[in-house]
Amino acid sequence: MKCPYCGHLENRVVDSRLNKDYTSTRRRRMCEACQRRFTTHERLEVTMPMLVKKDGRREIWDRNKVVEGIKKACEKRPVSIEQIDKFVDGIERDLQDLGEREIPIRLVGERVMNGLRRLDGVAYVRFASVYRQFKDLDEFMHELKGMLTSAEDHN
Fold this sequence. Notes:
The chain has five helices and six strands. By secondary structure, it is α+β, with helices and mostly antiparallel strands. The strands form two sheets. A three-stranded antiparallel sheet has the order 1-2-3, with no helix packed on it. Strands 5-4-6 form a three-stranded mixed sheet.
C-alpha cells in the first residue's frame, strides 16, 4: 500500500476493525518512512453482472456511480452515508443472487427507485425525475400522485 503523503511503499497495520455488517475491514496504517497514519477500507471483491444499457452497450458495475447518484438524490435530506452504503450493499446482494452474467440496467434503476421510495420520499422524487426523464410537468405530477396514493394506502 502506497503512503498517500510521501509515496513510500512500506507501512504497517496499527489497527483493524470490521464494520457492523462484517462486510468490510477498516485498517489504520502507519508509513514506515514519514510515520504518518492513514486509513484504508477493504471489501470482498465479488463478480457483478454486466449491465446492458438501453442502446445495447455493455457497462461494468460501478458501485461508486450508484452511490454518487443516491447521494445526490439524498443531498440535504436526513439520510446518512451508512444508510446509503447499506442500501447499495443490498442492491449488490440482490443482483448477485440473480445469478445472471448480464442484466438490463433498468433493473438497477428500478431497485434504486423502490429503495429510495422507502428511505426518503423527496430523494425518491429527485432520483425518479432524473431517471425517468420526465418530458413535462404532467408526467412528473402523475408520478408524484402515484407515490402519494401508495403512501396513503400504507397508513
